[in-house]
């Protein structure tokens, strides 16, 4: 891997799990949160772009004035935007970036389990497939799991935790991308690290090669000192669906959102990630709809059914309101 490729991979890492001190050393930003100013209503509207030429249902769906979407607040001391300089990405900037988009030949999202996820209190793979299909309105296929200890991956022990080198997994995936794949994403319950200088990473991806790998192990309630009790599996599923849809969103070229509280917000710690919604804001929703060409009301309706099954009552209610707003007949 040459230097350019390496820097590109690092640019799309999930660095949310890295210690705040490392983040500060790497970018030199103040940790008081004052370097980020939440965008104004005018700036949020400009980020969505001109909606005048769109169908009425899309104008409603992308309306930045809708109270269903909360503007992004000023970050706390340890939050992502207090420690990372991000300028955001408007809809027009997204279009001009010529992002990866599904086409007639490449439109399937493939999930490749590494290791036995079910036996390690991981999320239900079948439910992850259903959620990804609902979220992206694309076909999602689950590949047979492969044993993590039988693959040529570099490993290490870090504070007693077994970790796999994420760049090894990416290289392995690159040679296995199916012809009809939009992207190939590995999921695992084994901890990851990107190189010896890093403590750990939730995941890593390469947009040019359309591959990524994500670990769910640090999303387990017992791994975050939360008691294992009724609802813990639902929490695990919710967290896993969030990271899967957020990071797959990056595969479509969506950058971190700085306009609204949104699934595509960056996160610097688990509390911040838990507080973020499962849904996309008007800016990011317009980007994904432009890329995938789905019917927004149908997508919301499908996601609502999933949320009801998963017992995400707050998200199901929010989705029901959005369906009714866009298509009152639903």
Automatic annotation (TrEMBL):
CDD domains associated with the record: Peptidase_M54
Domain of life: Bacteria
Keyword Nucleotidyltransferase: no
Keywords: Hydrolase, Metal-binding, Metalloprotease, Protease, Zinc
Cofactor(s) named in the record: Zn(2+)
Pfam families (UniProt xref): Peptidase_M54
Protein name: Peptidase family M54
Protein source organism: Rubripirellula amarantea
InterPro entries linked: MetalloPept_cat_dom_sf, Pept_M54_archaemetzincn
GO terms for biological process, alphabetical: proteolysis
Gene Ontology molecular functions: metal ion binding; metallopeptidase activity
